[in-house]
Amino acid sequence: MTTATLTIREMCDAFDVTPRTLRFYEAKELLFPIREGQKRLFTKRDRARLKLILRGKRFGFSLEEIRQLLDLYDMGDQQATQLARTFELAKTHLAEMKAQRDELSEAITELEEQMDWGAKRLSDLQTV
Predict the structure, then answer these.
(1) 25: Cβ contacts below 8 Å, ≥ 6 apart
(2) pTM for this predicted structure
(3) What is 1-61's CATH number?
(4) DSSP state of 78
(5) CB-based burial, 54-80: b 16+ in 10 Å, e otherwise
(6) DSSP string, 12-47
(7) Rounded distance, CA 37 to CA 62, Å?
């Protein structure tokens, strides 16, 4: 993607998102495409922001958290504030994700045990 700007269709294809998603992020002031009439043109900065938005969502960040982090980019401190805040939020989300994983692992083990019991019980009933 060396083109200076991309159309909404090109952005959708490049990032596997829908036009509705891009318009939603624009409405939430996460993306700021150039408007030429009805046409939206996305800059290199928009592409970088979308990449961060999608990554943040994948990691469990809320759109408000993502917006606040993106807004810290222009603080003039070489992104030190943005990186520090991102790191703090990431630590929190990582702890939450690990707790969810542990709960899920426990539930899987318990379900497997119940299924083993059910299979044995079913087998016993069928041999009677």
Answers:
(1) 31, 50, 53
(2) 0.77
(3) 1.10.1660.10
(4) T
(5) bebeeeebeeebbbebbebeeeeeeee
(6) HHHHT--HHHHHHHHHTTS--PEEETTEEEEEHHHH
(7) 31
* Mean pLDDT of the 20-26 span: 96
**Residue 127 DSSP one-character state:** -
Question: How does pLDDT run across 4-22, given as a tens digit for each residue?
Answer: 999 999 999 999 999 999 9
- Of the candidates 10, 80, 85, 87, the residue with the CA atom closest to the CA atom of residue 43: 10
Note the pLDDT tens digit of each residue in 38-94: 899 999 999 999 999 999 999 999 999 999 999 998 878 988 999 999 999 999 999
Residue count of the chain = 128
Domain boundaries, the chain: 1-61, 75-128
Please state, in angstroms and as integers, the Cα–Cα distance from residue 36 to each residue in 7, 30, 33, 42, 99, following that order.
11, 19, 9, 11, 47
User: Which residues are CB-neighbours of 86 under 8 A, at least 6 positions away?
Assistant: 69
**Token pair of 107 as six digits:** 């539930």
